[in-house]
Amino acid sequence: MVITYSRNVFLPLTRSCRNRCYYCGFRRENDGLMSLDSIISLLRKAKNATEALLTFGEQPEFSEKVKKDLKALGFSSFSDYVKSVCEIAIKEGFLPHTNPGVVDTDFLKKVKDFNASMGLMLEQAVELECHKESPGKKPEERIKFIKKAGKLKIPFTTGILVGIGEKFEDRIYSLEVIADLHDNYGHIQEVIIQNFSPKKGTKMENFKPPSTSEMLETVKVARKIIQKDVAIQVPPNLVKEVEVFVKAGANDLGGISDVTPDFINPEHPWPKVEEISERLKGYELKERLPIYPKFVVEGWYSEKIAPLIEAYSDEEGYKC
Ligand SMILES: O=c1nc2n(C[C@H](O)[C@H](O)[C@H](O)CO)c3cc(O)ccc3cc-2c(=O)[nH]1
Ligand SMILES: C[C@H]1O[C@@H](n2cnc3c(N)ncnc32)[C@H](O)[C@@H]1O
Ligand code: SF4
């Protein structure tokens, strides 16, 4: 059995965010933008990565600091800045994967051709206390966005955040919603089963994270609900014993970096690929691109990134 992962470099473009999720340690009030120079120098350090992961707070343009930085950099909108970062990444030899939060259709259309895939965590398809101050976490907003990405044929990553106040049946319902989206649009490449990990200084710092057995049950039920052509991803820095999760049905480990931390969960360092390989004896651990083999073979990518995809993938669509 093949277990996949991607080698990436994480670009946290800004921590300014219109939402206030009670579990989030990433958001900062009035944070600015990464400079294009700092992005280039980070990319140049990531010698063996093929994915540039762009993540940031949702709709950060309201922040005075972001507005000021956009002006100083000569951009008239945040989406133009994101598009330029993608172009820089491509020029440096990386395939962008942008996880933008809920953005409008114009934003999505502008950046789509410059991304190998994009993502948005559904988190949970039910309303929860921890999202009371996060308009962009309303289930209908997230579902609408994932549908829009489907209509635009964007290879897509979504998933659930486990242990944020939902019941077990809410997880089942959320996974059914994802399966339904994939039935309708066929664009989901992977479903992340991510455990909530408490962050100091947040409202949920003393909230109990889900246990390993609870996470295993969730992966098992996800594997039953989600279509077989969609990968189940667990992050190896958050679940540690990847071998038991693989036994439960996970078959992807997401992006791993040698040069950047997981900026969302910085207290959880990435294990080395060698360590994962050691734990997964009997399985074939294989590197993939941020666009899954199936979508490479089906040609779900633009001419902007075609040269990179074609140079990096073998005839089965895996990284070569
Ligand atoms: O390092 C991380 N990568 C995260 N990734 C990156 C992901 O592991 C890879 O970029 C994809 O598998 C594409 O290769 C996300 C991507 C999404 O589209 C949506 C959510 C996440 C969440 C995380 C995360 O918490 N930490
Ligand atoms: C990048 C993704 O990380 C998730 N995320 C945000 N905060 C946390 C946390 N404390 N623990 C685990 N995952 C988190 C969100 O679902 C976001 O979409
Ligand atoms: S999880 Fe994302 S949307 Fe929520 S506060 Fe953090 S950065 Fe904003």
Give a structural overview.
The protein has 320 residues and is an alpha/beta fold. The chain has one domain: Alpha-Beta Barrel (TIM Barrel). Strands 1, 2, 3, 4, 5, 6, 7, 8 and 9 form a 9-stranded parallel sheet that branches. Helix 6 runs parallel beside helix 7. The protein starts with a strand and ends in an 8-residue tail after the last helix. The structure holds the ligand O=c1nc2n(C[C@H](O)[C@H](O)[C@H](O)CO)c3cc(O)ccc3cc-2c(=O)[nH]1, 5'-deoxyadenosine (5AD) and iron/sulfur cluster. Ligand FO1 binds next to strand 1, strand 2, strand 3, strand 4 and strand 6. 5'-deoxyadenosine binds next to loops. Pfam families: Radical_SAM (PF04055). The FO synthase complex consists of two subunits, CofG and CofH. Its cofactor is [4Fe-4S] cluster. Belongs to the radical SAM superfamily. CofG family.
Give the name of the CATH superfamily.
Answer: Aldolase class I
Number of strand elements: 9
Strand residue percentage:
15-25%
The helix fraction, in percent, is 25-40%
Structural class: alpha/beta
What is the end-to-end distance?
Answer: 18 Å
Domain Radical SAM core: 3-237
Function: Catalyzes the radical-mediated synthesis of 7,8-didemethyl-8-hydroxy-5-deazariboflavin (FO) from 5-amino-5-(4-hydroxybenzyl)-6-(D-ribitylimino)-5,6-dihydrouracil.
Binding site for [4Fe-4S] cluster: 17, 21, 24
EC number: 4.3.1.32
List the helices and strands and how they pair.
Layout: E1 2-12, H1 36-45, E2 51-55, H2 64-73, H3 78-91, E3 95-99, H4 105-112, E4 117-119, H5 139-151, E5 156-162, H6 168-185, E6 188-195, H7 212-225, E7 231-233, H8 236-239, H9 242-248, E8 252-256, H10 273-279, E9 284-287, H11 293-297, H12 306-312
Parallel strand pairs: 1-2, 1-8, 1-9, 2-3, 3-4, 4-5, 5-6, 6-7
Helix pairs in contact: 5-6, 6-7
The ligand O=c1nc2n(C[C@H](O)[C@H](O)[C@H](O)CO)c3cc(O)ccc3cc-2c(=O)[nH]1 is lined by residues 6, 8, 10, 51, 53, 97, 99, 117, 119, 121, 157, 190, 192, 254-255, 262, 264-265, 290.
Keywords: 4Fe-4S, Iron, Iron-sulfur, Lyase, Metal-binding, S-adenosyl-L-methionine
Domain Radical SAM core: 3-237
Catalytic activity: 5-amino-5-(4-hydroxybenzyl)-6-(D-ribitylimino)-5,6-dihydrouracil + S-adenosyl-L-methionine = 7,8-didemethyl-8-hydroxy-5-deazariboflavin + 5'-deoxyadenosine + L-methionine + NH4(+) + H(+)
